[in-house]
């Protein structure tokens, strides 16, 4: 009986999720990157914010643009990105990829502008009909220097309308 109730609950959540990934819907996706666990040979602990806005051009596929900033004890960075997300129908699981430009300002003199690509896989867990909690694993690839590439986990929110 418990398995049947659990399955029914998952079915209801899946139906609600599918309705949010339709053509013409919008998503706002802020995230706090200070909560993530990332690895990069260039940085240590950090705190930052990122935000993405997207539009579903076709069912289950969104075009996303984003801005953000990260602050560490040795270097600050600011980034812009453009990419896309594909949501697997009725599950909330998504895959995303795109291109980014990141500007690094070390404590010492000078600055670095880096171009790269990113990929992410996550899950949109619906808290309400339009608000999600979105844990994800990501990889940022630097075209300039592999030391700027990073792998990590992040937690964000999604607001669908």
Task: Give your account of this protein's structure.
It is a single chain. With 161 residues, the chain is mostly beta strands. The protein has a single domain (2-160), classed as Porin (Beta Barrel), CATH 2.40.160.20. The protein contains one helix and nine strands, in the order H-E-E-E-E-E-E-E-E-E. The protein has one helix at residues 2-20; strands spanning 26-39, 46-58, 61-72, 75-87, 93-106, 112-123, 125-126, 131-142, 150-160. The chain has an eight-stranded antiparallel β-barrel with strand order 1-2-3-4-5-6-8-9. The longest helix has 19 residues, at 2-20. The chain starts with a helix and ends with a strand. The model is unreliable at 6-16 (pLDDT under 50).
Helix content range of the residues, please? Answer: 10-25%
Can you count the helices?
Answer: 1
Widest β-sheet, arrangement of strands: 1-2-3-4-5-6-8-9
CATH class call: Mainly Beta
> What is the H-and-E element order?
HEEEEEEEEE
CATH topology, which one?
Porin
Give me the secondary-structure category.
mainly beta
Radius of gyration from CA coordinates: 17 Å
Sheet having the most strands:
8 strands, antiparallel, barrel
Q: State the distance separating the first and last CA atoms.
A: 35 Å
- Rounded mean pLDDT is 81
Low-pLDDT stretches: 6-16
Architecture (CATH level 2) name: Beta Barrel
Shape category: elongated
Number of strand segments:
9
Tally of discrete structural domains: 1
What percent of residues are in strands?
A: over 45%
């Amino acid at each position: 009986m418990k398995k049947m109730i659990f399955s029914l609950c998952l079915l209801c959540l899946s139906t609600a999720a599918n309705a949010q990934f339709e053509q013409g819907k919008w998503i706002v996706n802020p995230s706090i990157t200070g909560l993530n666990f990332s690895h990069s040979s260039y940085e240590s602990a950090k705190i930052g914010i990122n935000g993405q806005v997207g539009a579903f051009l076709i069912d289950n596929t969104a075009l996303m643009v984003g801005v953000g900033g990260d602050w560490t004890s040795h270097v600050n960075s600011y980034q812009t990105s453009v990419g896309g997300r594909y949501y697997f129908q009725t599950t909330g699981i998504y895959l995303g990829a795109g291109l980014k430009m990141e500007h690094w300002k070390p404590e010492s003199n000078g600055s670095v502008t880096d171009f790269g690509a990113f990929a992410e896989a996550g899950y949109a867990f619906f808290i309400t009909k339009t608000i999600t909690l979105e844990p994800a694993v990501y990889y940022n690839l630097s075209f300039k220097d592999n030391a700027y590439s990073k792998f990590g986990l992040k937690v964000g929110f999604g607001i669908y309308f």
